[in-house]
């Protein structure tokens, strides 16, 4: 001890010493976290934007951020009713203004009544404002054809992200061979891999079947589970439906099979259903895990543990910035549920404006309300345009040689597969880049189009993909898709 | 394996089986988390409120929540300018309304320009909107008498809580005797103990000196550090200034001594400065750690690692529900800083309305702006009333026999020490309660006053305290303080 202090004083005299917190010494789990959606490609996009602003000449005039599911960043306008009520909540002086419809005022007053000090500026209870939990429960009941939902099982959150992390936290235990394993789809939304890395849990990959439109196959779940049991204790299964980045919408049969599997294998189910309003394909329909589970009856309905997540960030409203969301837990052990609440209370509460927004999303204007017609028209317009863009994306990509794209049945992304010539793969390896990262970087530099390489989400060895949102306005999207297809052809030629 | 599957099928046939996720099997670190500010006493307060609403007769007509630093929940009105600009941001249609001052409109337009899609509904970059980071940096420079602040070192967060947890996460490493230890004050704000428990770090307690108005004593830091080195590797030191729950404001000399100590002992400094605008006592002044560090010059200024936290929840605005906050890091290793950004990006971004609010807090109206006079008047009124309430609290408590209370120099709480008669302590032990929890529960049941027992924050063995906010309106606070003092006298009599 004495000598180390001596060394230190020496260093101090020299005016030089190592940092206390270094890359080597920091939390190794945090180091292992990867997060592609906002990774190096996005860094580069930011730099390019700056260069453009500084007048640097580029082969494009703007950077198009097709990397993230952020509708309003792509120009989608907020739904009028939602913003009217929120403005009234933020500044209640407006309640006397003649410029707001009556139902918007009533809704704002109702929300404010339920807030501490009748203000969005008070902390709420950690599980979220009680009235809003009740409204969420009623929404779930309507969505699920009357199957009961208990507000006690609904917890509001800071976006769905927060709730997903919280539930995963509860599940992590054990060391070495008994460490918690969590099954996640590949390709996945990288929140899952990042959170498991941070928590020190074991990520157990199950592959979605690209040949069958990214279907989830129970045989593959079995394979993944059996292999994982050699080195960890699998305790949970995550499903994303509709899928990100893969855009598939699961059939009812598939969901039943997954529930049976989880039940037999004693896995806690996490159903990421943030895209539940984003279903476009004819013949596709959203089935909530909760509803299917309840309709399956005993022994599943009363026992299978499930957490279902929803968000204000997606759907028709795309209110990402407000960070609203919730989780409904089903059949969760009561004592564990208490522990979850305790954990949530450490961070005090989710943002109250996001809670208020969630309230409006789960209880929109009724047909007899003055705001109904406009609300409905705006909502339908967004969803109809998304459906058209989903269709267009699939079409244009599938016309391009070397690109193949499954139907975008739901969510907000296409995840096309691209052929990359062997010489391009070699070149990427020389540069120390994943081949699809190399492709996406070149795409960005030459066209300004920012998409995320498939390697950020996971994909079968030797296949290459990228994720592109369908969010740019229709005509712009068409140009983008064509530009991207032409770039791929040129890139292929260049390396052939 | 086969037999366990057999057992399971048996259980399935019986329709009975254990939960996958149980209290025994869940994350043991989460189980160890404690969070008193929203613990059992608050649960009971909620129940009492419900009973009152149902018409149950009680010796009081309302529950007074003096347990949490939530100004607006206690009736404080939001600052007009802040809410005007926010309403304009939320609903930009209002920009054409004549009912908003010009400077509010300009500020809203400026913020919206900096948002994705010019909307609060887009995700921001994970570190927060660039313009707002720049405004925060300029605020810090003004606050610190011109010492430079770099926006690159400012990261916006979901309340200060989020940033504190993030920085602590980076620091946690090691196993057994090399586990990261973090020094925290006792009494402390329980976010720290809860987070360290969750992260599996070692909490190293240093005691504030109640006899000297809760001063921080470097000799005590030394003692705590030396003892801790036997069983962990102390790497960080947290300081809360102004103090929660203790209300002390540190002197410049004290801060210098702490910085020298941290430097010599190679500790990363975390300065929780969320109450920087809440200083009331004559002779007390807020000194930021950053400013003092920089003014100390070499070798400290260029090397000592520091993270300083601020929030929109406290100060004169008390906008807790918006969850705005930031951390400024100083001398952090560049690669570690990259890792921090990566970690933040997993949860996408802090709530954008909270970011916008933070922007207004760090760059309020200038003297030449139309909103200046009203803004200034409202701000001063809040701060003057808080100062009066701080004084009143100290006075009334110190007049009560068996209660002694240090001056509330800053922050929003008193943390008086109460004598509890030995028979009350015995009775509490019979009930399995901490003696001050017993006192606070009885207080709640008989008076409706909800305060948090000192045991939730930590205190010297054998001493008893509670934390009470100074936030209720002045006249109400006076009644509360008197009621509480009378209850203590009665309680003492009852158990003597
Ligand atoms: C599948 C999925 N889950 C969860 C989230 C998190 O969204 P948020 O935290 O904004 O609610 C996203 C966001 O893109 C997502 O795609
Ligand atoms: C000392 C201290 N730090 C941090 C916080 C967190 O505040 P918030 O997350 O609302 O910014 C609080 C809240 O009471 C506090 O008292």
UniProtKB/TrEMBL annotation, chains A, B:
Pathway of action: Amino-acid degradation; L-alanine degradation via transaminase pathway; pyruvate from L-alanine: step 1/1
Keyword line: Acetylation, Aminotransferase, Cytoplasm, Phosphoprotein, Pyridoxal phosphate, Transferase
GO CC annotation terms, alphabetical: cytoplasm; extracellular space
Compartments (UniProt record): Cytoplasm
Enzyme Commission designation: 2.6.1.2
Main location: cytoplasm
Catalytic activity: L-alanine + 2-oxoglutarate = pyruvate + L-glutamate
Every Aminotransferase class I/classII large domain range: 85-483
InterPro entries (UniProt xref): ALAT1/2-like (IPR045088), Aminotransferase_I/II_large (IPR004839), PyrdxlP-dep_Trfase (IPR015424), PyrdxlP-dep_Trfase_major (IPR015421), PyrdxlP-dep_Trfase_small (IPR015422)
Gene Ontology MF term list: L-alanine:2-oxoglutarate aminotransferase activity; pyridoxal phosphate binding
Superkingdom, natural source: Eukaryota
Cofactor needs: pyridoxal 5'-phosphate
GO biological process, one term: L-alanine catabolic process
Family, per entry: Belongs to the class-I pyridoxal-phosphate-dependent aminotransferase family. Alanine aminotransferase subfamily.
The protein's assembly and partners: Homodimer.
Functional note: Catalyzes the reversible transamination between alanine and 2-oxoglutarate to form pyruvate and glutamate. Participates in cellular nitrogen metabolism and also in liver gluconeogenesis starting with precursors transported from skeletal muscles.
Designated name of the protein: Alanine aminotransferase 1
């Amino acid at each position: 001890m004495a000598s180390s202090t001596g060394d230190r004083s020496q260093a101090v005299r020299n005016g030089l010493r190592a940092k206390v917190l270094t890359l080597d010494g920091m939390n190794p789990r945090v180091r292992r976290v990867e997060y592609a959606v906002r990774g190096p490609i996005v860094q580069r996009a930011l730099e390019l934007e700056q260069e453009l602003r500084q007048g640097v000449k580029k082969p494009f005039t703007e950077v198009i951020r097709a990397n993230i599911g952020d509708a309003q960043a792509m120009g989608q306008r907020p739904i009028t009713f939602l913003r009217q009520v929120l403005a009234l909540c933020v500044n209640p002086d407006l309640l006397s203004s003649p410029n707001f419809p009556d139902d918007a005022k009533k809704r704002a007053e109702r929300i404010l009544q339920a807030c501490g000090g009748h203000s969005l500026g008070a902390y709420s209870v950690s599980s979220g404002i009680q009235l809003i939990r009740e409204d969420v429960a009623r929404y779930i009941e309507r969505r699920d054809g009357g199957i009961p939902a208990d507000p006690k099982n609904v917890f509001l959150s800071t976006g769905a992200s927060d709730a997903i992390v919280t539930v995963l936290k509860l599940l992590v235990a054990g060391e070495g061979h008994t460490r918690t394993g969590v099954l996640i789809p590949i390709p996945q939304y990288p929140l899952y891999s990042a959170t498991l890395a941070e928590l020190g849990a074991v990520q157990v990959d199950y592959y979605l079947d690209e040949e069958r439109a990214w279907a989830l196959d129970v045989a593959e779940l079995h394979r993944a589970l059996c292999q994982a049991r050699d080195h960890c204790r699998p305790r949970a299964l995550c499903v994303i439906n509709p899928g990100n980045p893969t855009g598939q919408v699961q059939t009812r049969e598939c969901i039943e099979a997954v529930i049976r599997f989880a039940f037999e294998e004693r896995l806690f189910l996490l159903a990421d259903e943030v895209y539940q309003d984003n279903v476009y394909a004819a013949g596709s329909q959203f089935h909530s895990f909760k509803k299917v589970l309840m309709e399956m009856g005993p022994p599943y309905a009363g026992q299978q543990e499930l957490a279902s997540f929803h968000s204000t960030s997606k759907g028709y409203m795309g209110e990402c910035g407000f960070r609203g969301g919730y989780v409904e837990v089903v059949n969760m052990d009561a004592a564990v549920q208490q522990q979850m609440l305790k954990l949530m209370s450490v961070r005090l509460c989710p943002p109250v404006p996001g809670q208020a927004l969630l309230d409006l999303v789960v209880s929109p204007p009724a047909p007899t309300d003055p705001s109904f017609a406009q609300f409905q028209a705006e909502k339908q317009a967004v969803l109809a345009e998304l459906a058209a863009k989903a269709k267009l994306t699939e079409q244009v990509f599938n016309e391009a040689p070397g690109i193949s794209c499954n139907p975008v049945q739901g969510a907000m992304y296409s995840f096309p597969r691209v052929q990359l010539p062997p010489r391009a793969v070699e070149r990427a390896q020389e540069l120390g880049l994943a081949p699809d990262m190399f492709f996406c970087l070149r795409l960005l530099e030459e066209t300004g189009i920012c998409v995320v390489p498939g390697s950020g989400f996971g994909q079968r060895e030797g296949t290459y993909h990228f994720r592109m949102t369908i969010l740019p306005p229709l005509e712009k999207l068409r140009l983008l898709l064509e530009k991207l297809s032409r770039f791929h052809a040129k890139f292929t030629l260049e390396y052939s």
